[in-house]
Amino acid sequence: MHGDAIGAWMTRPAEHAGDYTPAGATFTVKRIGFGAMQLPGPGVWGPPRDHAAALAVLREALALGINHIDTSDYYGPHVANQLVREALAPYPADLVIITKVGGVRGPDKSWGVALSRTELIAAVHDNLRHLGVEAIDVVNLRVGTNKGPNEDSIAEPLSVLIELQQQGLIKHLGLSNISAKQLAEGRAMASIVCVQNSYNVINRRSDPLIAECAANGIAFVPFGPLGGFRQLDWNRLDALAARAGTKPRQLALAWLLHRAPNVLLIPGTSHVDHLRENVAAGALPLSSDILEELESEPAV
């Protein structure tokens, strides 16, 4: 490897985690991406506390080698997408922008469900407009509730997105907050390139889905990789991280990358230093004894 190539490798640490191409997809992404949910203000509402810092985080993400951004028009609402556009447009050719529909924010900052035909069509067009694109690389259909997946049929809302895909407004489809039954239903209707479910070192209810996705070339993207609204046992992770010579957040992310080759990460932050720490997890080697102890972490 020539000197310039070595320098580029070192300055783009997201490449250390490797990459993944979902079956049927026209893109390849680095296994560590960036989630834009934390860029708006407190409670994922309104403008960021520091507008310039939010733009800097997005630009640094690309500088570190990240080539996929996970966002949604109901983050803010509209704020996350507007920041993505301001910071990154005109978009690099290899940048994959992934958004999600199926939710809505109420004026009281609540999180609601928006799965009617009218709401889904409006949501896709809102994403297109605020991102400034003619077609969205991936649109995830978010179903279920804030408590997790349910077993309701997804045929009706997914059929709306399939129509929009046929119109050329969506390139690829994904599913979020789903059950195994819903994945099977979705795959019978369309090519699904990714699944986003809550998953981390203590929340492993989606273990069967990870295996199902891996067997079919579908990316599995954990949300709440660091616990989300349910915090991880940081005391235990602190001890393991000290033994591994790293930080607990990095350890939790590195474990997810070791979990399966189709797992992609989208940790979010509004701070450049945290972003760099998250991306560095992609190069973190984990010894067999550390992995064994993480595997034995009490799971729910």
Question: In a nutshell, what does this entry contain?
Answer:
With 300 residues, the chain is of the alpha/beta class.
Task: Explain this structure.
The chain has one domain (15-295): NADP-dependent oxidoreductase domain (TIM Barrel). The radius of gyration is 18 Å and the shape is globular. Helix 2 (51-63) crosses helix 3 (79-88) and helix 4 (117-131) crosses helix 5 (155-166). The protein has a seven-stranded parallel sheet with strand order 3-4-5-8-9-10-11, with helices on one face. It has helices at residues 3-11, 51-63, 79-88, 117-131, 155-166, 180-189, 207-215, 234-244, 248-259, 272-280, 288-295; strands spanning 19-20, 29-30, 34-35, 68-70, 96-101, 103-105, 111-113, 136-142, 170-176, 192-198, 219-223. With 300 residues, the chain is an alpha/beta fold. It starts with a helix and ends in a 5-residue tail after the last helix. It has eleven helices and eleven strands. Strand 1 and strand 2 (29-30) form a beta hairpin.
By secondary-structure content and strand pairing, the structural class works out as alpha/beta
CATH architecture: Alpha-Beta Barrel
Termini separation: 45 Å
Task: Give the DSSP E fraction (strand runs of 2 or more residues).
Answer: 15-25%
Q: What is CATH's topology name?
A: TIM Barrel
Multimer state? single chain
Question: What number is the mean pLDDT?
Answer: 92
- Can you say what the CATH homologous superfamily is? NADP-dependent oxidoreductase domain
User: How many structural units, i.e. domains?
Assistant: 1
Low-pLDDT stretches: 1-9
How do the strands line up in the largest sheet? 3-4-5-8-9-10-11
Using the alpha-carbon principal axes, give the shape.
globular
Cα-atom Rg, whole angstroms? 18 Å
Order of helices and strands: HEEEHEHEEEHEHEHEHEHHHH
* Number of helical regions: 11
